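Practice problem: Glucose-6-phosphate 1-dehydrogenase
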Amino acid sequence: VPEIGCLSIIVLGASGDLAKKKTFPALFHLYCQGFLPPNEVHIFGYARTKISDDELRNRIRGYLVSDRSASPSKDVSKFLQLIKYVSGSYDAAEGFQMLDKEISKHETSKNSLEGSSRRLFYLALPPSVYPSVCRMIRRYCMNKSNLGGWTRIVVEKPFGRDLGSAEELSSQIGELFDEPQIYRIDHYLGKELVQNLLVLRFANRFFLPLWNRDNIDNVQIVFREDFGTEGRGGYFDEYGIIRDIIQNHLLQVLCLVAMEKPVSLKPERIRDEKVKVLQSVLPIKDEEVVLGQYEGYRDDPTVPDHSNTPTFATVILRIHNERWEGVPFILKAGKALNSRKAEIRVQFKDVPGRNEFVIRLQPSEAMYMKLMVKQPGLEMSTVQSELDLSYRQRYQGVTIPEAYERLILDTIRGDQQHFVRRDELKAAWEIFTPLLHRIDNGEMKPIPYQAGSRGPAEADELLEKAGYIQTHGY
Ligand code: BG6
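Answer key — structure tokens:
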């Protein structure tokens, strides 16, 4: 049953990078597709800077582009008219009281159609202010309608720096909001081919009997970017590639690749299975880690001269359960490499040729299977070829939604399947915290690599040792 009544979306940190580049454009896409009907929805921007509604609108206008709108410029103007701006600090009552007043004003004006009030707070803010902002929302801005409705908050990583700090943050927020009200975004869970993983695995006879240690030799989950930390050096240096990409995005993908079939498709049952995978990961061994830092990274004035922060890492995880015992899961991520790509490579055991199944998350979504065929022609020889499902060709004319667009729609609909649950987050930190502490203490050092290269050669050696065989390019 669709909920009726008015929906207020409040973007805190409205003039920051995340809001401008991701949150508002995603809201705009949803608006263009009719998911945010103007007679129900109002959007509020909140930040410290004292600017007018129009100034905020002008700041975000340039980021609003839609290929799904018949008259984009008209839609941009109409969308911007839904946005109001309120300024205030992140830890004082005044701004939040004002915000509540504005939201309530809009709710009474729209509530001629009887309905509930729904308040979605999107924290496009650094985690250091999450506790105070949550406290302020809790105290001053909760939905007060007696006709029902809800208040939800959306937060983004980094959720802490290690197990201890993440748990502290979780319990501070947990004292103010219940788990069903908290949406922890990992935007990789909003990507088309990540969302496809469970269907692929559990709705295809091809995969069901093969997806285990008897048939799979190794699994590689790779993230590469062909640019460095440009402009984000200060932020990045605090965290490094493991906290930025591996502990969250790649680990989430690993969960979906490795988890058992859930007892039902209810979000909680799916998340239960993901937690079990994380809890089955064995402690990481130093000799199964290669760290790298690209040359030139420290030239960024916001990066300390002696930074020990890795911009590249290859880490092997081992899952201690019946299905995966002995199968290395190779997680690899790096900045300033030779290409931009995110993919999952599943290598099957030799027969004697090597079959490989590749799921390319981006760019150009695709799934392809490398297999051996007879070389066409009179001779009897074998050659490697591909069964290829490239989305662009197969689904011409279908626009694949942006991850943020999908995830924000889920928060409005109240579907938590593609969000990280508190126990999942804890289990993810448990895996990486000992390694991160060793890096932070300088006990493990990154190997320099050339920007634009494949990363340190030692990483390729580690892969080879784990059983990965480089197949012919495709
Ligand atoms: C973010 C990281 O979470 O993901 C960035 O903080 C990274 O460092 C980005 O560039 C990559 O996202 P995508 O969707 O472009 O693969």
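Discussion: The chain has a mean pLDDT of 94. Students who identified this feature from the tokens alone can consider the problem solved.
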